[in-house]
Design goal:
By secondary structure, this protein is an alpha/beta fold. The protein has nine helices and seven strands; from the N terminus they run ααβαβαββαβααβααβ. It has a single domain, classed as Vaccinia Virus protein VP39 (Rossmann fold, 3-Layer(aba) Sandwich), CATH 3.40.50.150. The chain starts with 6 loop residues before the first helix and ends with a strand.
Length: 250
């Protein structure tokens, strides 16, 4: 963790990032393709999308037939999720404000999804134990985290990441929290080299390609989306920017 780390400032940076991204939910190649993998891992029934952000995954879960409770620790993110679902004519069972630590349900959910959540929590094991308690005995957890600790850099600081994970470390924390890991994979191998190079310069990678409306950048966005959908999603790269795990209570 950087000496400049400030979780309060990081929360503001994360909210700013999601609000910048909000207008481009439908065309964002990264989120669209990761969400495809996630939805395939989530069981049918009642699902908690904790750390729902701007509501993109919540919408995909509802479209796929799941009943969803969307929860976020940020009032700004709850408002974005409400706005996004309303724009699509979709309804969640609930959209609510709350942290992982505030979860009161016990044995209530068939699935819990936490994408890019536990790296924002100092005690990640306790957070995972709370999620396990919220699951039914045959439920499933689907979790993503930023991968490769040696990639920790300016963006991680800016959005409030306490850490990045390697596979061994993440699986160890999950097992300590009472989970049996069913599968784990790296994702987004394309991003590793550019982020590493920018970190060496002490700078953040320019991600404007994900948001730009220029013809050239729209074409690049389309190409990258095809790469993830038809190459990286079906395969399992040996490393990547993200670790995606699914597990069940042990």
């Amino acid at each position: 963790m950087s000496d400049d780390f400030d979780p309060t400032r990081g929360q503001e940076g994360l909210e700013d990032h999601y609000e910048q991204w909000f207008a481009h939910i439908a065309s964002d190649f990264r989120a669209t393709n990761l969400n495809r993998l996630v939805v395939d891992l989530v069981p049918r029934g009642l699902v908690l999308d904790i750390g729902c952000g701007s509501g993109a995954l919540t919408a995909e879960l509802i479209r796929s037939g799941r009943e969803v409770v969307a929860q976020d620790a940020s009032e700004r993110m709850v408002a974005l999720t409400e706005r996004h679902l309303a724009s699509l004519g979709l309804a969640a069972r609930a959209i609510r404000l709350g942290t992982v630590e505030s979860l009161a349900e016990r044995g209530a959910f068939d699935g819990v999804v936490a994408l890019d959540v536990i790296e924002h929590i100092e005690d990640d094991r306790a957070a995972l134990e709370t999620m396990r308690a919220a699951l039914r005995p045959d439920g499933r957890l689907v979790l993503s985290v930023p991968a490769l600790p040696w990639l920790y850099g300016p963006k991680d600081v800016a959005v409030g990441h306490y850490r990045r994970y390697d596979k061994t470390g993440l699986l160890g924390v999950l097992e300590q929290a009472g989970f049996e890991v069913l599968g784990a994979r790296y994702w987004n191998a394309l991003g590793v080299a550019p982020v590493w190079l920018m970190n060496r310069r002490g700078a953040r990678l320019d991600e404007s390609v994900r948001y730009s409306a220029s013809p050239a950048k729209r074409a690049l966005n389309t190409t990258l989306s095809a790469w993830f959908r038809y190459v990286e999603n079906p395969l399992r790269p040996p490393l990547g920017m993200t670790l995606l795990v699914h597990a069940r209570p042990r």
